[in-house]
Amino acid sequence: EPNSTLVMYLKFVEFEETVNSFDKECKSKDKLVSKPQGNTLRDSKTRGIQKDLLSSFDDGDHKVFFELWTENIPSEIKDTDTEAQSLEFYLHIHFTIYPLRRHPGRHDRAEFEERISHFKQYLETRGAALSQTTEFLPYYALPFVPNPTVHPSFKDLFQDSWIPQLKDKLKPFLSVTLKPSNTPRLMNLYKEGGRSTKEAVQQLHLQLVESDRRITSYVRKFNKMQADYHNLIGITAELVDSLEATVSGKMVRQLDCGASSMLRASIAPQKSKEVPMLPSLDYEKLKKDLVEGSDRLKSLLLQALRWRLTRSLPGEQRDTVLQAFISNDLLERYSTKQKTLLHLMRSKNKIVRQYMARLINAFASLAEGRIYLSQIPILLKLLTEALRTEEKDSLARENVLVALQKLSLRRSQQTAMIAANLIGWLVDELQDSDCLSDYTLEYSAALLMNLCLRTKGKRKCAENARHVLKVLTDVLGHENHEIRPYVNGALYSILCIPSVRQEAKEMSVEEILRCYSKEENPDLNRQIEFIIKQLNSADEEGPESDDEEDEDDNDEDLMETDLDTEEVLQPQPREPSGESLLTTEYLGIMTNMSKVKRKSTPLSQPSVDEPLQRPVTPSSHRNFNVCDEALICPSSQTQSVAGCPRSQRWTGHTKESKCISSWAPSPLPVIISDYVPAFTSQPMIPRTPEAAPSQNAGAHRARGPALAPQFSHSEPQQSNRPGSTSSTRGRGPQSGSKRSSALKKIKLA
């Protein structure tokens, strides 16, 4: 067998003399060379496969058929040949409706439902490519039709002639496609071996990415559970205080220390140890090498500088690092050179571009960093340029988008983004939402909402109102529910324009919204009611918002664990990287300048029932303390609490709620009756890709009460930056159509 395989190959490449010499030597050594029988065997095997395929077609055995189809039809034919794609589509239909044809009188419903599920999966994966073809478009509604046998769109499928016609197309296709190749077995073994190795590496890479995604998801869930635990302990402590006061005959405001002190002590932060400052750096040498060094050195330096920000301890250490970057003008805000460090966003090396984008994103995650970035005129041009030129699923593009979303907390940056027509780009991006990762989808929706809060943004949407409304109402049905607050906020905002309201009425937007409100989600239903009320209002366009001086940025730090995930750059053995690279090659003298952090000015909180009305980011929107707000601000007490400074409210960490005790009118029973309904009905507000638990919580304790996005009490909320709940990212495209069943029914009708 080995000898004959070799002879077949030598004959294939026309080494006739070599074959003769080989044959002669084999005979002299009594080594028989069997005659090649490969073609005969292959012919027999091919006929068997073809027979099995046709037999499973007749029997309606979709599992056997598609197993053979996957194994034996070359992928280059399945993926590129239009005839093969068309035939595969109709084969899926054949096997899906087979139970309905087999028992016309009594449909095997369970089997049909199972096959419908397989068909839906196909439509969302391989079949998605044909969704734009008129011939196949009607069949995308098949999974949502209760009884296809009587539906006029599918009557041809149940004609007696339909199956024979399909089989007549299948037979010649199999004969041509499964025709044995003349390629020698030795060459096939070589090709298959290389392909299998490559596929194994790709599979391992996918498993690694998936593991990374799951780890980040678990970290987020842990952070959320820890925050909820702290909130509940704090609420319990307040109730214990009130209970003790009631038992002792005191008013609620006369609180004393008792069991609640032990509860608070259980979540009180440990006394912080003295945090060392990181060594100073030679920034002039750093900037020189970042511009003139090799691409690998540039990438390593960008990575090390980012790690200085993301891995430093929140509080004084991180503030000092950022202040050193800014005071030494790391990003060359004041440079007169034609090409500055920021021009690395145009580097030909994709890793350099990605790591530059990551560093900018890290800057944008901090309030002082956003101020610094907003003073660099060329920055926005470079970022919007990267959005349009980077590959759709690249990490560079993703970090650019997230950085822009964080910068959109600042009014000056909102104005510049609207002028750069970023709204049009975002709407087009969201139109293809099923191909976006959850992370990209959430930040795109949040950025769009922030820009729509501005008068100029609303008017920009009004220029193409039908398209914008179509995209927003469509994406509202996406399976990622984290985007709903941002979509609702954008809808509510643009519907204050009379021309947009008129367009919405012509498009029956109210009917689409009411279809969503049938879902069992009271929080979504309440927000939709606000949007419908806005849609049906007769108000004229609101006052111009663009002359307001308020920057809106609430000074919150938004550092996320996602900034350091999926590192594509790994140091070689003995190659310095990170802090080691900085401290061995770039030590400086007294370049670390400490600075007192600006005290944040929180904005008023919105009602969670309403669409968002102020810029937010997904991280800050998620970190909004729902439990705290539910306890302190029941609807019946809104006016009383509105005047209570946020800094005096209980934060779930250390302080007692002096504000509560100052206005609580009666003992515990009243408190319970007022607060519990509000507490249980408040919706959970999306969390951003949360910062590492030990970091953000520690930072907030060190600097005072935890910050949360603040909003007006009177109108719907709107968020500013997407976080990543599902976000770490389902980085790859989302599979197929993810619209809610309610919207599908509307479209079908």
On the 0-100 scale, what is the average pLDDT? Answer: 74
Share of residues in strands: under 5%
Name the helicity range.
Answer: 55-70%
The tally of beta strands, per DSSP, is 0
Ranges with pLDDT <50 over ≥5 residues?
601-605, 624-749
Would you write up a description of this structure?
This protein has 749 residues and is mainly α. Helices cover 58% and strands 0% of the residues. It has 34 helices and no strands. α17 runs parallel beside α20 (438-452), α22 runs antiparallel to α23 and α29 crosses α32 (668-681). The model is unreliable at 601-605 and 624-749 (pLDDT under 50).
Topology diagram in text:
Layout lengths: L1 H11 L3 H13 L9 H22 L2 H11 L2 H6 L1 H21 L6 H16 L37 H16 L7 H63 L11 H9 L15 H10 L2 H16 L5 H12 L22 H15 L2 H7 L5 H11 L5 H13 L3 H9 L2 H10 L6 H15 L2 H8 L2 H11 L8 H11 L3 H9 L2 H8 L5 H14 L42 H8 L32 H6 L2 H7 L5 H5 L15 H6 L4 H14 L11 H11 L37 H8 L1
What attributes characterize this protein structure?
58% helix; single chain; 749 residues; mainly alpha
Brief account:
Pfam families: ARMC9_ARM (PF21050), ARMC9_LisH (PF21051), CTLH_Armc9 (PF23138). The chain is an all-alpha fold and about 750 residues long.
